[in-house]
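Quality-control log, excerpt.
Job 1 of 2 completed; input and output follow.
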Amino acid sequence: MDVNPSCKDKKKTIDQSVLLCCKLFISESRNHAALDAIEQAARLNPETVIVNKFEDLAYNRVRYTLVSYVVQDITGSAIYSPLQQAVLAMVEAAFGAINLELHSGTHPRLGVVDDILFHPLARASLDDAAWLAKAVAADIANRFQVPVFLYAAAHPTGKALDTIRRELGYYRPNFMGNQWAGWTMSDMLLEKPDEGPSEVSRARGITMIGARPWVALYNIPILSTDFSVARRIARMVSARGGGLPTVQTLGLVHGEDSTEIACMLLEPNQIGADRVQNQVEMLATEEGVEVEKGYFTDFSPEMIIEKYMNLTSAQRD
């Protein structure tokens, strides 16, 4: 249920820096009219700020990083955040402008709105992020009739995102052996979603929604077109393949003349980008291929908070 607190309550919460961050992953980056519509929808809510946008044309995928405050009741439980309506407006715009059946790219995806991840920032708690994730999941399922799978802190048992994706066939290319195009899976899900119908709209697909502590996304270019080499390196670096703990990886085609190791660092303060970079470089040398310096696809939590504060301050001025 939406609760719209008084301006006094909002002011107090902003001063306390109880903030939530949302990473919204959408399966489109080439259709500029679609992206404009999504961003215009976000601007309708001035209390939510887009602090970063990362587009990848080869993957045909975009990620928006949004931040706003969360209001808590006297017991400390979250009851309201402007993020909820801002995200829903962007989701509605995405579904109105993008058809998954016409989409193709070299990054796996299961839906137009492929993934929504909430992080606590500053003084917010993981419970705050999980509350918002579950609220948005129910809204998307009910309003748009899209199956939603919850993961991490938003899931009753903390089920991992990669486990759900593996069960749904997320990692299996369906076009040319290394790409994803249209919708080729069954219209009826064998796995029951946490919210929404078991029948899938081919135009909209499936949405994943989760909440967890900060995750760093770090991509490492491989100067080789050999997809099998990239996949081998990715597997050996990942925790699942016996490599670095708390590191998840994908070997992907990235443009016409390179591949890439896309890395998700689940505990970046424990296993950071430098260690992943060194491991990839060592394995690449064994494979006889060269590696470029990797890059983060988003700012650090500290930079995101700073950008949010600067942008909201500018709006008030």
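Job 2 of 2 completed; input and output follow.
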Amino acid sequence: MHFAYPPRKTSNPPLYLPRSSNLPRFRRSRLQLIALAGLALITFIYLVTWASHGHGAYSQHRPSGKPPVVLVTVLDEVKYSKAYIDAVKENRIQYAERHGYQTFFPKVGDYDLKNAPASWTTVVAMRHALTKFPDCNYVWHLDQNSFVMNPRLKIEDHVMKSSRLEKLMIKDHPVVPPDSIIKTFSHLKGQDVDFVLTQDKEGLSSGSYVLRNGDWAKFFLETWFDPLYRSYNFQKAETHALEHIVQWHPTILAKLALVNQRTINSYSKASKGAEYQDGDIAIRFVDCQAQNSIACEVESQKFAQKWRTAFKNS
């Protein structure tokens, strides 16, 4: 059976018929307008939702400064006696209470370091402190084998105040002495500094440093604690890892201020760095750490009564 072919569509419609293209063009314009309006509405809702969850540039959490500073000291209660640990904690607590600060005393073994040396605990502890005290302005890491000696000095004024930093910063200086080709920035301003650190005779000294709370500090600590650096088996573990990332990550170097060692990190002896002098904010017992815990306790006794007297008389 054969079927008739369908009639062909004429390409020459009669003049009296309305143009068939006018109506679709109007409809297309209208549909495009509706689509654009819908897209704009969806975008607006997305941006509002995104910002409300803390992702927007203007909704970033701004610390209230309560407390102004958190003093972080990692304690090793296995190697050191209870009397020594109690003396260290008493020192930190008295200093913090005087200025409205908070103390944070995590312990060796609190965190899973994935078989890395225990000294890496300090890096995780600092990151933990930022989470535990989201409204603090600064966190000060001070090694266990040390004492705060001058209760009058406040971190926010003595170290982190912009005008003070302008005077303290060591600019255009090798990051790792004596001849590192990477140097501290010569144009860095005090208001742009988020990380204050010192050097001793051997290199960077990570036993006492100050961080400004914020997204950059979190990024820095998480970079420092990266599994890759922990796997490198550096001789000085986290300290040599720090030297590596400071030299090869401009984003970190751009926020770093090196200051004179005695500003926050005086040593009890001059064999490895700047020796403590009366009036310095803190003293660290670095030589004893290469010996044993008893050596640190013995050395600390020379300064225990001195800090208590200074706190009593201030």
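Post-run check on job 2. The two ends are 116 Å apart (CA to CA).
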